[in-house]
Amino acid sequence: MIKIILADDHKIVRDGIRAQLSNESNYQIIAEASDGQEVLELLKTKDADLVIMDINMKGMDGISCTKELTKLYSSVKVLALTMLGENQYIKQMLQAGAAGYLLKNCEEDELKKAINSIHSGENYYSSDVTRIIMNNLRKQPTKPKRNTTIQIPLTSREKQVLRLIMKEYSNKEISDELFIGLRTVDSHKRNLLEKTGARNVAGLVLYAIDQQIFDDL
After folding, report:
1. Strands 124-125 and 100-103: what pairing?
2. ∠ CA 187-94-140, rounded to 5°
3. Are β-strands 50-53 and 124-125 bridged in parallel, bridged antiparallel, or unpaired?
4. Residue 65 in 3-state DSSP?
């Protein structure tokens, strides 16, 4: 059972999400909040697995809440669900520690896929969000490669894993593609995060693009 808190300042939106998830027995909406401060108060007494978080809310916004939430409740994951598709909001939300980012025009199946992926320890970013990030980076002047690549070289296996991450493969798909165990995939991901200084999978993608590791992607 995945215990979920809905955070959105529009009740009609919360009602819509609740309706989409109500027909699944493995989801339980345990509380609702209209701003970030309410989420933090709820977490003092509620045992939640996931917060579906809007960004633009009256009172404490979703970015500020996510920063506090990830510091205080490291086991609680955040899935951003918002109308804001601009690169600046995506970047700020991911830097705050969100494990996923969806736009509100997503299909019901994708919302459920994101919830399940995040609950199983994956990160989930819709193809729209990934495209927005990459398009923004392509518009920027190409930066010369920094010496950090020399200081923290990636192994050939780590590069293989990173390439598949950029292609939006799940841990299981990476395991099957490279014929390695899931624990080994997790180990490579941890090493990649440590070497690159990235906080999450989106950070790894940004790092790979910035360092021009895969010119063919």
Report:
1. parallel
2. 105
3. unpaired
4. helix
Domain ranges of the chain: 2-136, 141-210
From first to last of its 217 residues, the chain has per-residue pLDDT tens of 999 999 999 999 999 999 999 888 899 999 999 999 999 999 999 999 999 999 999 889 999 999 999 999 989 999 999 999 888 898 899 889 999 999 999 999 999 999 999 998 888 888 888 777 777 665 555 444 444 434 468 899 999 999 898 887 889 999 999 999 999 999 999 899 888 887 777 778 777 877 777 755 4
Contacts of 102 (CB under 8 A, 6+ apart): 79, 80, 81, 82, 110, 111, 114, 124, 126, 129
Q: Are 184 and 158 in contact (CB under 8 A)?
A: no
Tokens 């995939």 — which residue? 185
**Any idea which architecture 2-136 has in CATH?**
3-Layer(aba) Sandwich (3.40)
CATH 1.10.10.10: does it fit domain 141-210? yes
Amino acid in the structure at residue 39: V
